[in-house]
Design brief:
The protein is mainly α and 748 residues long. The protein is built from 28 helices and two strands.
Length: 748
């Protein structure tokens, strides 16, 4: 796997082995483009300073005697509002923070109402309250990620309340403290001091364009010099693609009304990346006594690079030179001195350059227009409906939905941790209960991943905290600064590095409790073993009580997608029946599958897998890309009204593709697949024999493109055929062997 933190070409960044600060900066540039989450972390640090100062001042001004616990609850208010409110528009964030605040207020008011007031029974009631609250928090997941964040915020507030064990009067003061901390955080988050996620997305797109322009320059130089040029974009473009994805999520959250425009620009950038990569596979091998194709090829590559570098300028003379280079390249492609393989490669290059020119023109038109364009409020999509608690089962009866199953798991797990606390009088049992809530995922696989990251991260964080506690115990303010810094790291890394976020949280918790309540080494060690207890209970319960396996639906979903791909492909030219069905909606559905890949892959640990789902998702992505390119070529061929021989060749290749789709679905035999290749070769020979015919000559570049993409889809389809079979685990070696019939240059 390529290193996503590698620097872009032409930059002056230090190499990967350079200073640690440079590596962190590169990671942030990829995973937090525009500093959106970094700004949230800085605002949290400022909020902590303000709420601690205000909290201590309030406690002393009114002689409450809560110099520690009052600012602690105020800090909890600031923390939950920023942690569980993702970066979005001010309006969206205000609405989300309002819901979190209302839920926290409801809990604190309940605590005031039902708490017995004084004595050990008060603490007992608060511990027992965590069990039904955990069930309620998990039921909220039926509303999606918003509900999940809302539930976790409730558990954090309830856990802090359990730690403080307030009397009825104290609970009233803590309610006021929470309001104070929430007010500070709301004021900071809704202030003008925040970067633009839309601007960060556009800048990320520009970075990809600059990298691809540099790549085309290198290709041009290699072609002129006659050097081999690998069809590999390198790790820096992969890192830039990840940066665009992350920036897209932030920009869509900041301006939901322009989400479709952001998606369209991202799709154009991705199409540009694929088109450049495919162009690199169109460079013929050098030979003697061949026409001069290198000069026109290099000139065309230079032109596309210039267009990418200066999108807002139109140079008519440069366009004329580009058209002249394309004509010279087309003439070279039909020179009889070239071998058929080289001729087809140059024909593909001609259409690749034309496609690149169209893509760059589309990107320029979108970026030079007002971006994003104004959208009326009614264009906003309605919020998704919550998942019902009961859903129809396979036999038609009503059964528990996945969110309700997970809620029942949480009820069982928190009952166990609470029972252990009552039986063995654990000093910090709330850590085990809170761990259950944080690691219990929406499937067995997600729970396993969270358990692994949470356990390892907590172990590392607590070990670091204990080491610093022993070395810097006398430097209170330095420990406090490190505690706040760890909270900032948790905010920035919680989306993409849950292990790091867990380590930062464990570090901050034990140092914070040491500073606030004098937590010693014994309590710090308790943080480790109680986290392990909670994580272990959550994993066992997730596996044993109403287990949720997303892979139960994964294979049927992939098969259904492939069937729709086949129907879509069958509706295209030639032999199109009815209205043409586009690939665009299917590509969006594949991207939704990608979001579930981590937890799906993790379920292989339990022997309950649909194969290597990471490979399945990426293979589907590749397949969709090539089918989209085939869709484009078929439309252009249909408009060209080609000769009967060309139509016959397209029909033969089309039949081969449909047969490969049937094979992937298990609806055809391998014997049919073996007979398809000779038929295509015979049709190609027949068309090449008519290459001097003006009509055939005009259509040949498009035919070369069509055949190239028709060959390209064979490899992902062959791999999917193995991955969707009943073999578990997935046989990678066999899949690669079966897919080996596809040309190497066709691989992305």
């Amino acid at each position: 796997m390529s290193d996503p933190t590698a620097p872009a070409p032409g930059t002056s960044e230090a190499p990967v082995g350079g200073p640690y600060a440079s590596r962190v900066a590169r990671w942030l540039s990829i995973h937090d483009p525009g500093g959106i989450d970094t700004t949230r972390a800085l605002q949290l640090a400022v909020a902590f300073v303000i709420v601690i100062t205000l909290g201590v001042s309030t406690s002393r001004a009114f002689d409450l005697g809560l110099d520690v616990s009052f600012p602690l609850m105020a800090g909890a208010g600031a923390l939950v509002l920023v942690t569980f409110t993702p970066a979005a528009s001010r309006r969206t964030e205000a609405r989300t923070m309002g819901r979190i605040f209302a839920l926290a207020m409801a809990f604190l008011l309940t605590l005031i109402a039902v708490g017995p007031g004084e004595g050990p029974a008060n603490e007992m009631v608060q511990k027992l309250l965590l069990v039904p609250l955990s069930f309620l928090a998990l039921v909220l997941r039926r509303s999606g990620m918003d509900g999940q964040r809302l539930g976790l915020s409730l558990i954090v507030v309830a856990t802090v309340g359990t730690i403080l064990a307030p009397t009825r009067a104290d609970a009233l003061y803590f309610l006021l403290a929470f309001c104070q901390g929430a007010a500070v955080m709301v004021a900071l988050r809704l202030s003008p001091w925040r970067p633009s996620a839309v601007k960060a997305f556009v800048n990320s797109a520009h970075q990809v364009e600059e990298m691809l322009a540099a790549y085309l320059r290198e290709m041009s130089e290699a072609v002129r010099a006659g050097r081999p040029f690998p069809a590999d974009l390198g790790p820096e473009v992969g890192a830039a693609r990840a940066r665009v994805w992350n920036a897209l999520a932030n920009a869509s959250a900041e301006d939901p009304g322009a989400r479709l425009d952001f998606e369209q620009l991202r799709a154009k950038i991705y199409r540009l990346r694929v088109a450049v990569l495919l162009l690199a596979s169109c460079i013929p091998a050098s030979g003697r006594n061949t026409p001069d194709w290198r000069g026109p090829f290099a000139n065309a590559a230079d032109h596309i690079a210039r267009r990418l570098e200066v999108l807002d300028r139109i140079d008519d003379k440069a366009e004329e030179r580009f058209e002249r280079a394309i004509e010279e390249l087309r003439a070279a492609a039909f020179d009889p001195r070239l071998e058929p393989v080289a001729r087809f490669a140059l024909m593909r290059a001609v259409t690749a350059f034309e496609r690149l020119s169209l893509v760059v023109t589309g990107i320029a038109a979108q970026e030079t227009a007002p971006f994003p364009p104004p959208h009326p409020d009614e264009d906003l999509p309605p919020p998704p409906a919550p998942v019902p608690l009961l859903v129809p089962g396979r036999d038609g009866r009503r059964v528990f939905s996945a969110p309700l199953k997970v809620a029942c798991q949480g009820l069982v797990a928190t009952t166990i941790t609470t029972a252990l606390d009552l039986a063995f009088h654990l000093e910090h049992a709330y850590w085990a209960t809170m761990t259950v809530m944080f690691v219990l995922g929406n499937s067995v696989g997600e729970t396993y991943m969270r358990v692994r990251y949470r356990t390892v991260g907590t172990l590392i964080g607590v070990a670091l905290g204990m080491g610093l506690f022993l070395v810097l115990d006398a430097h209170v303010w330095l420990l406090a600064a490190l505690c706040v810094f760890a909270q900032m790291i948790g905010i920035v890394t919680q989306k993409d590095r849950y292990d790091v976020a867990s380590a930062a949280t464990g570090f901050a918790v034990i140092l914070g409790l040491h500073l606030i309540a004098g937590l010693g080494p014994q309590g710090m060690i308790a943080r480790i073993y109680e986290t392990v207890i909670g994580a272990g209970i959550a994993l066992v319960v997730s596996y044993a009580v109403l287990p949720v396996y997303l892979t139960d639906q994964f294979r049927p979903e992939v098969r259904a997608l492939l069937k729709r791909c086949r129907d879509s492909f069958a509706s295209w030219w030639p032999r199109a029946q009815g209205q043409r069905v586009s690939m665009a909606p299917l590509a969006r559905e594949v991207r939704q599958l990608d979001l579930r890949v981590p937890q799906l892959g993790a379920e292989q640990v339990f022997g309950h897998s649909a194969g290597d789902v990471v490979n399945i998702a990426s293979t589907l992505d590749v397949l969709m890309t090539y089918l989209a390119l085939l869709e484009d070529v078929t439309q252009r061929l249909a408009l060209a009204a080609p000769q009967a021989e060309v139509v016959s060749l397209a029909e033969t290749a089309r039949s081969r593709t449909l047969n490969a789709l049937a094979l992937a679905l298990g609806e055809a035999s391998a014997d049919q697949d073996a007979a398809a290749a000779p038929a295509v070769e015979a049709a190609v020979s027949m068309v090449l024999a008519l290459a001097d015919d003006p009509q055939v000559k005009q259509a040949l570049p498009l035919v070369a493109d069509y055949l190239a993409y028709s060959d390209a889809v064979l490899r992902p389809l062959a791999e999917l055929r193995i991955a969707l079979s009943d073999q578990a685990p997935w046989n990678r070696a066999r899949a690669l062997a079966v897919g080996g019939g596809a040309p190497q240059a066709a691989r992305p």
